[in-house]
Design brief:
Low-confidence stretches: 1-21
Shape: globular
Helix content: 25-40%
Number of strands: 36
Distance between the termini: 73 Å
Strand content: 15-25%
Length: 759
């Protein structure tokens, strides 16, 4: 036995050295960009694609397995890659804009997607935020990609071949290519987009190769054309050369929405003379620096991978649409008037999704990029006359609500300064009182302002959902107006309209219900009916959409006991549904049905805050239970790792906030509602130099309940945290236990903000 112990002691120094030489991987290397890619139109496990890009970069790159024009541009179940695509796609349902693809091929020349496609295996696929590599079996080629904000570099390893080539596909709907062999260069543009119309829209690109071009051809779709310059509906360029086995050919690629010259400038500025490995290392360092704002420890490796994979997904949209010209000025092509104008511009997000948690996270952890986004919104309004509710890249006619009010108001209320808030406030007032094009403004505004709701029987779809969201948006305007010291005669109406949710509450059933113009409720009524009066959900989902006044909703339901029982019912009820409005089972319905959580439809946004409402009714331990249950059940860093559409970072933001231990139920209240932390330790490194330290040393699978909390060393009983206080820095200690503490957070003084209790 002693000899055995001596042997172990002898090994110990070597073990320590090995640990030092093999430290824990960086968070960036724990990320799985394939999380959520095992999806299809009928069932979403995220509906994501592997985005190889920098945070908020103007351009993303992805391997392309779907045909040109398909929103499902990469799906995990696919066997063949058709090309490597520059993309700006926010979701498959919105599809893409500013796209073209590059595909290396060998042997006989193959132009069409079907013929140039190559079998591949996930076993040879490496996907990192900053790097992608895959082996294309049919061509015996390995393709690697690494990005900058507006450019990328390819490293393509060819076999020995007399006929190695690269197909540059500028896509259909109007494109142009030009090959300049003397400069080893291809230039062109694509005009393809999914949401428009767009004026003067061109995604210009420039491609340099370090291998002399010996073959140069242009094609109109499948037809070979004379000459090296071509404008057509579907233009393609092919360059080729002889290669030796293992020869690496590099492509330097950049694009611009402004001009070819600007694309050249973007390439020169962002790559210079850097080689592939240097750009890769710089991209990795950018990701490390961005991710290091949030450091977590003390969870399982799966939890940590899931956390950072979600954080990665949050750091893309909205993405930069602006560029830096030769004078060093910020400029952008405007999707509203087609002009090149000064200032910031962003695109690719839907506020119906992202006002809930993504923008609150930016305000907490990355406020500097949100300041740029706010300046971009000013330009949206000046150039288009409205704030976008969905931008892709201009106004897109989808979803409901006027949730730009929340995005604008929250940023200022949480401390962002140095931009023209008065113009944004003017935009909020304008959009709140007018109906705009393509979902901008408020549809049904005349009814809403007169009756206090959008009626069910006036041919305005999803009317109850609109009413509930407008009421919260009015609250956001009221909050911003107060902060800007606007007179009561101007902002009082918005406080009054904040209570309009009351007009849709049916006390006979204790749920929200569509209401007719004459004041009667819609009949017949099925609370399990999706759509109709609601948006991608039913009454059991939307009834909780009273972010600004949960106490008021509690009062309508008869008190805390009845309210808590109603919350419990969501998880107890069977996952029945009425899909007659859609005439089919939409994927959101199917995802609720198979999740095993009753009527709780976490895969879509309307109900994602609901779990935290237990904190308003004196039962925070129930929130703690269901938050942990949802994190464990609905998320994993795997291709099927989400429980519905990821949606521009929102579903990921729910996980990241919840794993930290709190969530922004009402973004413009300035409070976060406490759930329960997932990790033993978390540190938020704020941009102002302060830190938020969250300790839960006893955290475990069993210890999911909060026994007690201290805040900066003092006992803390409140069920909420103040944003402004957190920004001063904080140390929050959670004492975790296996059984709930049913005395903590049960007094009215502990409950988060509600408009009904405002003094």
């Amino acid at each position: 036995m002693k000899r055995y112990c001596v042997f172990l002691l002898a090994l110990f120094p070597a073990f320590v050295v090995a640990q030092k030489n093999n430290p824990m991987p960086s968070p960036v290397d724990l990320i799985n960009p394939l999380m959520g890619t095992d999806s299809k139109p009928s069932l979403s496990n995220g509906n994501t694609y592997p985005a190889i890009a920098l945070p908020w970069g103007m351009n993303f790159w992805t391997p392309q397995t779907g045909k040109m024009g398909s929103g499902w541009q990469y799906t995990y179940e696919a066997n063949k890659i058709l090309g490597f695509k520059q993309t700006h796609q926010p979701s498959p349902w919105m599809n893409d804009y500013g796209e073209f693809s590059i595909m290396p091929v060998t042997g006989s020349l193959k132009i069409t997607e079907a013929k140039r496609a190559s079998w591949f295996s996930h076993k040879t696929e490496i996907a990192k935020p900053y790097y992608y590599s895959v082996y294309l079996a049919d061509h015996d080629v390995t393709t690697e990609i690494t990005p900058t904000e507006r450019s990328a570099q390819f490293r393509i390893t060819f076999p020995r071949s007399d006929s190695s080539s690269i197909v540059i596909d500028a896509y259909d709907k109007g494109s142009w290519v030009k090959i300049i062999p003397g400069e080893n260069k291809v230039i062109g543009y694509s005009t393809k987009y999914a949401n428009g119309p767009l004026k003067n829209f061109k995604n210009y690109f420039v491609i340099y190769t370090d291998k002399p071009i010996t073959l140069a051809k242009t094609y109109s779709d499948t037809t070979l054309q004379p000459g090296l310059e071509l404008s057509a509906d579907h233009a393609l360029a092919v360059i080729g050369f002889k290669t030796t086995r293992g020869e690496k050919v590099h492509l330097r690629v950049a694009s611009s929405f402004v001009s070819i010259e600007q694309a050249e400038l973007n390439l020169k500025r962002e790559q210079g003379a850097d080689g592939f490995d240097v750009i890769k290392q710089k991209a990795r360092a950018t990701w490390i620096n961005t991710l290091n704002h949030v450091q977590v420890e003390g969870g399982t490796i799966d939890q940590t991978r899931t956390f950072y994979s979600c954080l990665y997904r949050m750091l893309f949209f909205p993405n930069k649409l602006y560029e830096i010209n030769a004078k060093g000025e910020i400029v952008h092509w405007s999707p509203y008037n087609g002009k090149v104008l000064p200032g910031y511009m962003f695109a690719g997000t839907g506020f119906w999704d992202t006002f809930r948690a993504l923008y609150p996270f930016l305000n907490l952890v990355y406020p500097s990029i949100n300041k740029e986004m706010q300046e971009g919104l000013i330009n949206d309004y000046k150039e288009g006359g409205w704030l976008p509710e969905w931008s892709s890249p201009g106004y897109a006619d989808v979803m409901v609500g006027n949730n730009s009010a929340s995005v604008v108001a929250e940023a200022y209320l949480k401390g962002l300064r140095g931009y023209d808030i008065e113009t944004l406030y003017k935009a909020l007032i304008h959009d709140a009182n007018n109906e705009g094009p393509n979902a901008a403004g408020r549809r049904g505004v005349e009814y809403y302002n007169k009756l206090g709701y959008v009626p069910y029987d006036v041919n305005i779809n999803e009317n109850a959902a609109r009413t509930l969201e407008y009421a919260y948006d009015d609250f956001s305007i009221y909050q911003l107006g107060k902060a800007l010291h606007k007179p009561e005669r101007e902002i009082g109406i918005y406080k009054q309209r904040s209570m309009n949710y009351q007009k849709l509450f049916d006390p006979s059933i204790g749920l929200m219900r569509g209401k007719n113009k004459d004041g009667s409720f819609e009949t017949p009524f099925n609370p399990f009916k999706w759509g109709d009066a609601f948006t991608e959900g039913n009454s059991w989902h939307y009834t909780w959409g009273v972010f600004q006044d949960v106490q008021g909703l509690i009062n309508l339901m008869g008190g805390k006991k009845q309210f808590t029982a109603k919350l419990d019912s969501v998880f107890i009820l069977p996952p029945v549904f009425d899909d007659s409005y859609y005439h089919t089972v939409i994927h959101e319905i199917r995802e609720m049905q198979i999740a095993g959580m009753g009527q709780y439809a976490h895969g879509n946004q309307p109900i994602q805050h609901m779990i935290y409402l237990y904190d308003f009714a004196g039962a925070p331990w129930k929130a703690q239970f269901w938050v942990r249950e949802t994190m464990n059940k609905m998320y994993k860093a795997t291709p099927d790792g989400y429980c519905g559409d990821e949606d521009n970072g929102q579903t990921s933001a729910w996980y990241v906030f919840s794993a930290l231990g709190f969530y922004p139920v009402c973004p413009t209240s300035g409070q976060y509602v406490i759930g329960a932390p997932l990790f033993k330790s978390a540190i938020l490194n704020l941009e102002n130099g302060k830190k938020i330290v969250i300790n839960a040393p006893a955290n475990s699978v069993a210890n999911k309940y909060i026994k007690g909390v201290s805040y900066n060393g003092k006992p803390y009983t409140l069920n909420w945290l103040s944003h402004l206080k957190l920004m001063e820095g904080a140390v929050i200690n959670f004492d975790m236990a296996p059984i709930p503490n049913k005395q903590k957070g049960t007094n009215d003084i502990d409950f988060p903000y509600s408009l009904s209790t405002e003094k």
